[in-house]
Design brief:
The protein has eight helices and no strands. The chain has 190 residues and is mostly helical. The chain is globular and about 50 Å long.
Length: 190
């Protein structure tokens, strides 16, 4: 299959940056609260919300490039640190912030290297790699040594993140097209 050239990146407006940072902060904050509520011995509620952070990152990376995506990740990280320390336990806050920034930067790098392939390959591979790293870091920092069933929660969390990552390909494609419709698309369809 021939490799397509990467499209030029759109300039990121202050409004787009603000919306992306707020979305990232909301996802991380919500996930830090939800991870404290288990559904069973295999899963917490946080597994369902956190994959949206990779969707936000991948959309920003695809449309605006890796530089703005990194800025959003670092700004989201700063917001997450401030809010997590206030909302979550210190150990969960430390685990969340550490796992978040490592996973986001990995996601951005992997996505950028694969961006010229099929539309689904970059977000799928990047999300798979970063969700795996995020899960390993978060659960081991947050709960290792505790009597809670954190290892089974980590495995359940990873399975849900990967499943949701696949499910988020449809909104990724739809939102990407909405953000940057193909050239020649009538204005009424944008």
């Amino acid at each position: 299959m021939p490799v397509r050239p990467a499209p030029p990146f759109a300039p990121m407006t202050p409004r787009a940056l603000l919306l992306a940072v707020l979305a990232m902060g909301a996802v991380v904050l919500g996930s830090n609260v939800l991870v404290q509520y288990p559904l069973n011995d295999w899963l917490t509620w946080g597994a369902f919300s956190y994959p949206v952070a990779f969707l936000v990152s991948n959309l920003i990376n695809r449309r605006f490039g890796p530089g703005p995506a990194r800025r959003v990740a670092w700004a989201g990280f700063a917001l997450a640190v401030l809010l997590s320390v206030w909302i979550a336990t210190p150990r969960i806050a430390l685990a969340s912030c550490s796992a978040f920034i490592v996973a986001q930067l990995l996601d951005i790098t992997v996505f950028d290297r694969l961006r010229r392939g099929s539309w689904w390959r970059a977000p799928m591979v990047a999300t798979t790699c970063s969700a795996t790293v995020d899960t390993a870091l978060f659960w081991s920092i947050a709960f290792a040594g505790s009597p809670l069933p954190w290892l089974s929660w980590a495995l359940g969390d990873l399975a849900v993140k990967l499943l949701i990552g696949v499910c988020l390909l449809a909104p990724f494609r739809a939102l990407l097209w909405r953000m940057a419709p193909p050239p020649g698309t009538p204005r009424a369809l944008r």
